Amino acid sequence: MRIRLLLIFLVLIQKGLIGQEQEKTKFVEAIEDNSYFVEEAYNQEAGVVQHISSGYYKMSPTKDFMYSFTQEWPVGSEKHQLSYTVGYSWLNSNSTNGIPDFLINYRYQLTGHDDFITLAPRFSIIFPTGNENKGLGNGVLGYQFNLPMSKRLTNAFACHANVGLTLLPGAKSVDLSNNENKNNLLNINMGASLIWLATQKLNLMFEVLHNIYRIPNPSNKMETVHETVVSPGFRYAIDVKQLQIVPGIAIPTTIRDGKSDTGIFFYLSFEHPF
Fold first, then answer.
1. Which candidate among 131, 155, 157, 214 keeps its CA 20 to 30 Å from the CA of 223?
2. The CA-based dihedral angle spanning residues 14, 266, 88, 78, taken in that order and rounded to the nearest 10 degrees
């Protein structure tokens, strides 16, 4: 049912693409920022840096708050982008807190705005800076690949889609007999979003993300777990000379193992020349 929901959403976006004229269209300017759960395929322009803060508050089954900070830099031109992501987490109703795993990311602008679809594949290395015994990290060097795809449909709408995977080789786990095991963990992600450009400064957003986890159960048998995130939200751009500030909020609902929980996602971006 959850995969079907995502597929229906992708088909609707595809129909919107097919229904358009193939000739290049000059659209009005609009916010091109980061979505919250579905990555957009726009690298940083040459000479422009972006600082992104986000916070995710989950109320069940325990009260958790995860903060992350990402800084994105162009390398020579818009073709190449380097970024890093650091954070701090308060888990299990603040009984556990600390630094999670650290990411270094590289993105290549494969196609641009003038092409039929914008593509910017990303490769990331996940460093095991988080304490796996406290649930703050995975304890191994990991690798992540994601393919963001973006398309401006009309002056009023843009859509984005992602396909990617995360590999954590040799991650440790403890089974019911207190034996320590090592397994290769795999996460496959698929997602799509539709952005309504309500005004030049205001975007209303609807994102759907589906994750497929390959993880060990308490008996150390590998199981496949499905998780779906459905998230409506908004963002608003504030321009102060050459500085653009983009605050935003979303209300994501996560569905996993037949249970759902709703949280609050906070976003704040600063973008300026350097």
1. 131
2. 50
Taking alpha carbons only, the member of 229, 142, 220 closest to residue 193 is 229
Out of 25-29, 82-86, 235-239, 242-246, pick the least confident: 25-29
Q: Give the pLDDT confidence of 139-177 residue by residue, as tens digits.
A: 999 999 999 999 999 999 999 999 999 999 999 988 888
**What number of residues does the chain have?**
274
**Does the CA dihedral 140-175-190-169 come out positive or negative?**
positive
**CA 229 to CA 38: how far, in whole Å?**
10
Q: What's the DSSP call for residue 34?
A: -
Look at residue 20 in the predicted model and tell me its pLDDT: 46
Q: Tokens 């650290």 sit at which residue? A: 102
Asked whether residue 273 carries a pLDDT value surpassing 60, the answer given is yes
Q: Around Cβ 217, how many Cβ atoms within 10 Å? A: 12
Contact in structure between 180 and 172 (CB atoms under 8 Å): yes
Closest CA to 247 of 194, 186, 198, 203: 203
Written as six digits, the tokens of 261 are 């929980």
